[in-house]
């Protein structure tokens, strides 16, 4: 075999025509000497977004040499932070007293920090009432989704004990021994369990690095084996995600009905096919006025079910004003023109750590060629489409490349 390979390579070399000579000879199959061992290209599809690669326009050097140097310094600082694998918690454990430059917002970004709308105006829907009047609940969901893109639910069927256990489990994961936590560190978003700080860390368009660490468990459609889930939160994650799936199914029914569609419509569009659970950890911040816990953004999921602890910090954008979402014990927050995901952000806080657990119903990490767009049954001459059709792959690629830059990605598809 080795002799055959040698002779074939020698014969190829003696033609002096190179690979182009083979193509000019109209070959239809790759010769054996060019073939890789089987399975070598099983990882052909990249697992890390190309947006992580820094791009620096050297034409700008004539305008601002200082700006180019600053970008390089920022990249190097982000890389050094990332390589510790200790996240923002590692900075706090090192007793820093000032927020590093990569976390600092452009001056004036937080001038609107104080809300101008009362938190009491945020819709709270009691799902226990569904047994009395499903029609009444559907109307409340419709009003909340149209006017706010956001609502809180109580009496949702998730036991308080399960809620407390998942909050405790997320906290235990982030506060466990660093060497154990590092074993889950990766920037490969295709893995079923991912721990890191800032998915868009290297994205130059992001406003700033956020004061937050996160871990992700992909719980549907193919959940990890139980032993793959971190021990610190394993049982709590499995149990809580079951309840989130049940609640999500019910909410998709209500949302379908509120649109005047049959109750299974959104579920039949695979809206429930994927579930990513994300446990965020926001350490106390020494200078909370200089950074965000999470920058302004809207979610890329079909719906998000969010649990926050008593510390708060979540704000939503309503009629161009920021509104505090005050923690309501046992309540879950639902985020979802008609029915557009609300833009929201999380403020940094001296108190902490703040814990939140988000359940994202989305198939954006799954192979999916389905084209999504305005639901045809809702369109008419009086109500034409406001958005173009797109595949989830197109949407997700753009969302990741854009990062949390303070703008809505959905607006890119507006007609």
Automatic annotation (TrEMBL):
Keywords, ordered alphabetically: Iron, Metal-binding, Oxidoreductase
Signal peptide: none
Start and end residues of each Fe2OG dioxygenase domain: 267-363
Domain of life: Eukaryota
CC cofactor: Fe cation
Transmembrane stretches, start-end: none
GO molecular function: dioxygenase activity; metal ion binding
InterPro entries: DIOX_N, IPNS-like_FE2OG_OXY, IPNS-like_sf, Oxoglu/Fe-dep_dioxygenase_dom
Family (UniProt): Belongs to the iron/ascorbate-dependent oxidoreductase family.
Protein name per Swiss-Prot or TrEMBL: Fe2OG dioxygenase domain-containing protein
Organism, scientific name: Brassica cretica (Mustard)
């Amino acid at each position: 075999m080795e002799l055959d390979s040698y002779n074939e390579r020698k014969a190829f070399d003696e033609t002096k025509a190179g690979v182009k000579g083979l193509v000019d000879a109209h070959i239809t199959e790759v010769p054996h000497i060019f073939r890789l061992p089987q399975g070598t290209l099983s990882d052909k599809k990249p697992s890390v977004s190309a947006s992580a690669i820094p791009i620096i326009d050297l034409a700008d050097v004539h305008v601002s040499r200082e700006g180019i140097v600053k970008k390089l310094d920022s990249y190097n600082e982000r890389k050094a932070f990332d390589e510790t694998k200790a996240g923002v918690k590692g900075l706090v454990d090192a007793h820093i007293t000032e927020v590093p430059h990569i976390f600092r917002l452009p001056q004036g970004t937080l001038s609107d920090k104080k809300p101008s709308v009362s938190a009491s105006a945020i819709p709270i829907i009691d799902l226990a009432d569904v047994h009395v009047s499903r029609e009444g609940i559907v109307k409340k969901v419709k009003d909340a989704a149209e006017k706010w893109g956001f609502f809180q639910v109580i009496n949702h069927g998730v036991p308080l004990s399960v809620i407390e256990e998942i909050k405790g489990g997320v906290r235990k994961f982030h506060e466990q021994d660093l060497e154990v936590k590092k074993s889950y560190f990766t920037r490969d978003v295709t893995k079923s369990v991912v721990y890191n700080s800032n998915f868009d860390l290297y994205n130059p368009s992001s406003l700033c690095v956020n004061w937050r660490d996160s871990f992700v468990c992909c719980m549907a459609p193919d959940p990890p084996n139980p032993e793959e889930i971190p021990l610190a939160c394993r049982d709590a994650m499995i149990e809580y995600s079951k309840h989130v799936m049940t609640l999500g199914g019910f909410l998709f029914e209500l949302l379908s009905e509120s649109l005047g569609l049959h109750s299974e419509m959104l579920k039949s569009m695979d809206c429930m096919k994927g579930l990513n659970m994300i446990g965020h950890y926001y350490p106390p911040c020494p200078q909370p006025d200089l950074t965000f816990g999470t920058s302004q953004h809207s979610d890329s999921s079909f719906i998000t079910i969010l649990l926050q602890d008593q510390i708060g910090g979540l704000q939503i954008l309503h009629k161009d004003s920021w509104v505090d979402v005050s923690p309501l014990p046992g309540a879950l927050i639902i985020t979802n023109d008609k029915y557009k995901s609300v833009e929201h952000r999380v403020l940094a806080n001296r108190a902490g750590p703040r814990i939140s657990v988000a359940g994202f119903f989305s198939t954006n990490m799954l192979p999916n060629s389905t084209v999504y767009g305005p639901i045809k049954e809702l369109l008419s001459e009086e109500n034409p489409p406001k958005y173009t059709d797109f595949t989830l792959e197109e949407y997700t690629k753009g969302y990741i490349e854009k990062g949390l830059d303070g703008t809505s990605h959905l607006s890119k598809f507006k007609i």
